[in-house]
Structure formats: structure tokens, C-alpha cells
Design a protein that fits this description.
Layout lengths: L9 E11 L5 E7 L10 E2 L2 E3 L13 E2 L6 H18 L4 E3 L12 H9 L4 H7 L2 E4 L4 E7 L7 E10 L13 E7 L1 H9 L7 H11 L4 H10 L8 E5 L2 E5 L10 E3 L5
Parallel strand pairs: 1-9, 5-7
Antiparallel strand pairs: 1-2, 1-4, 2-3, 2-10, 6-7, 8-9, 11-12, 12-13
């Protein structure tokens, strides 16, 4: 699946669309801290850059679905699960006996230690006698940021139905709020100028909003042919626009460049 290898200038990253149907079709979103240098103050899906520890071969004993994926996908899925653990406290894992995780997976200080690199995520999962569920994640989209941006990412978006027995809470450092919200409502708030939502997030919210619920969203993602989105800048009559591949599933998109900078 990794047909476009990352270069030193393009960092691999992973993002989670955590979905639920009860009490309504909602996605978990977090608000970025205003002092973060990328997408500060924006409402985003939990996610971030892949770290070296996400690719540790010792994970083979701590995950479900190891043999189903290549090395790149294993690391990206582990990164996505780690990020939603750090930012929202949700651990997409099962106990060794197969039971689901419930309540608060870990105290906030453990999450912060993982985020700071003081404690390895692998060690936390070992201590919990849990195994990450890589197969719970379904590829939703893949975006590579265009050269015009100061930081470039090769970001894989994964959709997953949220575990029913876990609670979400922001970390207070990278994120200052975590909330379950209907995709259509986020789009309304963004259009009204009440929330900051960056272009890739908005496009994936629009795609998500086409589904009737969490299960439908995951099923649609599984059925879609993955087309890597590498936005292109074109000159049109009204000025420069950012254009998406027509077969990527977002419909015809020609976004004025000033709306995405």
C-alpha cells in the first residue's frame, strides 16, 4: 500500500477518525493548543508523526493483526493508536484474555510520560497486559501535503468504531479540549467561522458526513479504492486554487489558495 515512499522532507504521520453511533453519529475531535506550531487552535482528529518506537519489532508480541500488514502499515497503525492514547486517553486494545479495555486506560501522568518520550508506549501496553488491535483500523484516506507548506506530512487517516467502555479526555498539552461531535455540525461551525478547521480535516469531514453512521463510514472506507491525495496548485480565472484528484472520492474540488494557507 505504501506506493509513495516518504522522503526526509515528508514525515510519515497517522490520524484516527474515532466514530460512534450512540447517542448519535459522532466523531471524536480535539482542539489543538494555541501555542502548537502546526494547526494551532484548530479542531482536528487525534494524530501526529510516526516515531521510531512505533516500528520496534518487539511490538509483534503486543499487537493483534501483526501478520496482516507490512512493516510500514504496522508502524503507522501503532502510531495512530499511540496518538489517540496520548491526546484523548483512548486505548484501542484488548486484554490478554480478549476482554475489551474499559474506563480510564491509564492515568494522565502516564499518557504525558509517553508523549514526552520518558516512557515507551510499548512498555505501557506490556504493563497493562494488553495487545493493540491493528485490525480495528480501516484506511480512510491518505494525504501528502503540497510543497507550498513549511512542514510536509504523508498522513494516513484511519476510521475505527470507538470502544464503548472507554472515556475520552484531552491531554491539556497538545490538545485543550476533546469532544464528540457530528461531522455535519463541525462543518457548520467551520463555515460560520466559529471553529478553525484546516483544509484536509474539512475535506475528510465532508466525506465522513456522507455516511449514515459509524458502521456505514467504516464500510464505505473499506470499499473505496485508496487514491493518495497530493493537492496540486492550478491557476484558474479567479486566481490560484488547490485541486484534488478527481477520483479520490471528494468530488470536484478547486479550493482558493487563501482558504488553505
Amino acid at each position: 500500500m505504501s506506493d509513495t515512499p516518504a522522503t526526509p522532507d515528508i514525515k510519515p504521520a497517522a490520524t484516527i477518525l474515532l466514530l460512534r453511533d450512540d447517542p448519535a453519529f459522532e466523531v471524536l475531535m480535539v482542539k489543538r493548543h494555541h501555542q502548537i506550531d502546526f494547526a494551532s487552535g484548530a479542531l482536528v482528529f487525534p494524530g501526529g508523526k510516526s516515531h521510531a518506537g512505533d516500528h520496534d519489532p518487539a511490538w509483534a508480541e503486543q499487537v493483534l493483526g501483526w501478520d496482516a500488514y507490512d512493516a510500514d502499515q504496522r508502524g503507522l497503525r501503532i502510531a495512530a493508536i499511540r496518538e489517540v492514547f496520548e491526546e484523548a486517553g483512548i486505548l484501542l486494545a484488548k486484554r490478554r484474555d480478549g476482554a475489551p479495555m474499559s474506563g480510564e486506560a491509564c492515568p494522565m501522568n502516564v499518557r504525558q510520560a509517553v508523549d514526552e518520550g520518558a516512557v515507551a508506549f510499548l512498555d505501557v501496553v506490556r504493563d497493562l497486559e494488553a495487545r493493540l488491535d491493528l485490525s480495528a483500523l480501516t484506511v480512510f484516506a491518505r494525504w501528502i501535503t503540497p510543497p507550498l507548506t513549511p512542514k510536509r506530512f504523508d498522513t494516513w487517516f484511519y476510521a475505527v468504531s470507538a470502544p464503548a467502555e472507554q472515556l475520552a479526555a484531552c491531554d491539556g498539552r497538545e490538545t485543550v479540549d476533546a469532544e464528540w461531535i457530528a461531522p455535519a455540525e463541525v462543518l457548520r461551525l467551520a463555515a460560520a467561522g466559529e471553529r478553525k478547521v484546516i483544509f484536509p480535516t474539512r475535506m475528510n469531514l465532508q466525506l465522513l458526513a456522507e455516511a449514515s453512521g459509524a458502521r456505514d463510514a467504516v464500510a464505505r472506507a473499506a470499499a473505496r479504492t485508496l487514491v493518495t491525495v497530493q493537492p496540486q496548485i492550478q491557476q484558474r480565472g479567479g486566481g490560484r486554487v488547490l485541486v484534488l484528484p478527481p477520483d479520490a472520492g471528494y468530488g470536484p474540488v478547486a479550493e482558493p489558495l487563501e482558504n488553505v494557507m
